[in-house]
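Retro notes (design track)

What went well: tokenization of the new backbones is finally stable.
What didn't: we kept losing track of which sequence belonged to which structure.
Fix going forward: every design gets posted as structure first, then sequence, in one message. First example under the new rule, 369 residues:
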């Protein structure tokens, strides 16, 4: 036998606890005495005991013992109940109301029988003012633990009217849910939480995509979709919904608009590439190689150099003609959606801060947008 504690315990509201749950917050759990015969030691919540005292507020005597086998019952205890208990963790403590642990029991996780004994419960209620004034404790309690297979709670001895009252109150409570019912309720809670998390994720994603959820193709398209999303999310979704044939036409149109805006359409080595784009042919040299295209571009002194503000309003200037060049390559992308979005974005950057004019024009030209 091991005496874990022998001394005084401060109680409030006539209660104290044995706690082993890592997470004590369980608002949906059963009443501690639900389904029990006794109302002095509630064991309906797994890993938790709810213990009643006669005294409402003040000091009571408490002894806590851990035994290897069932101890003999002392005839001096007036009210005795027994309950099953299994710790929910390796840390089991006696816990006063509104305070930190009084003592740790050091119980391995296993099945136990718990005997809760009380003496002078009625006198404690009658003499409460004397106890509060500092006189000796009126009621005393014994809490004993020993290994045992689970079996229902039991009222071993009843004497005090206080104990009788709490026993009757316990029998008015509905029984706690069965393990199967608890598991089912937990599955429902988990499913509801998963649905709530999914809905929140969908709301966040919709907000990120301009107020609506993107299609799978739009979510996976890559390229400059994020840039076009920042400039005009409605146009982005409209192009996605337009279908492959319209997307391919939009891509070619956007490439032409970019080169026309940059003053590049009439350049002798560029015009054949624009014509090949319209015919669906491979781009001729130097547009068959991006690096050679840029070399030719920067070597051609006849190409104008015009600075524009960036579409987001940033100052400092970007070279309009250089921004237009990628639009032709973008328009030849294998995926028609990416071709349309990337070519539109390249054209928008070519227009700079005047890009709304381009977007107004594409909506007039392609009425499905």
């Amino acid at each position: 036998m091991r005496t874990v504690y022998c001394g005084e315990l401060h109680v409030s509201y006539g209660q104290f606890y044995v706690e082993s749950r890592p997470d004590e917050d369980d608002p949906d759990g059963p009443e501690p005495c639900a389904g029990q015969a006794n109302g002095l030691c509630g064991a309906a919540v797994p890993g938790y005991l709810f213990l009643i005292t006669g005294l409402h507020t003040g000091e009571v005597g408490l002894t806590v013992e851990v035994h290897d086998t069932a101890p003999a019952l002392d005839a001096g205890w007036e009210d005795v109940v027994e309950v099953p208990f299994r710790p929910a963790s390796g840390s089991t403590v006696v816990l006063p109301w509104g305070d930190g642990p009084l003592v740790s029991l050091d119980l391995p996780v296993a099945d136990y029988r718990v005997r809760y004994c009380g003496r002078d419960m009625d006198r404690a209620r009658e003499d409460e003012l004397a106890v509060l004034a500092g006189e000796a404790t009126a009621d005393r309690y014994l809490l004993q633990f020993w290994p045992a297979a689970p079996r229902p709670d039991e009222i071993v001895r009843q004497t005090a009217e206080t104990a009788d009252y709490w026993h009757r109150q316990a029998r008015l409570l509905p029984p706690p849910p069965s393990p199967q019912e608890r598991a089912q309720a937990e599955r429902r809670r988990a499913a509801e939480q998963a649905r709530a998390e999914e809905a929140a994720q969908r709301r966040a994603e919709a907000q990120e995509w301009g107020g609506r959820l993107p299609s799978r193709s739009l979510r996976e398209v890559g390229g400059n979709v994020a840039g076009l999303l920042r400039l005009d999310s409605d146009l982005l979704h409209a192009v996605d919904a337009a279908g492959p044939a319209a997307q391919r036409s939009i891509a070619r149109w956007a490439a032409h608009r970019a080169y026309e805006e940059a003053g590049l359409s009439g350049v002798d080595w560029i015009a054949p590439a624009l014509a090949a784009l319209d015919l669906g042919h491979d781009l001729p040299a130097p547009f068959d190689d991006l690096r050679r295209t840029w070399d030719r571009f920067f070597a051609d002194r006849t190409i104008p150099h015009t600075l524009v503000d960036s579409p987001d309003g940033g100052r400092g200037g970007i070279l309009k003609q250089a921004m237009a060049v990628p639009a032709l390559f973008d328009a030849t992308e294998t995926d028609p959606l990416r071709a349309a979005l990337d070519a539109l974005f390249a054209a928008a950057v070519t227009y700079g801060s005047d890009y709304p004019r381009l977007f107004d024009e594409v909506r007039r030209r392609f009425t499905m947008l």
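Added context from the reviewer: The mean pLDDT is 92.
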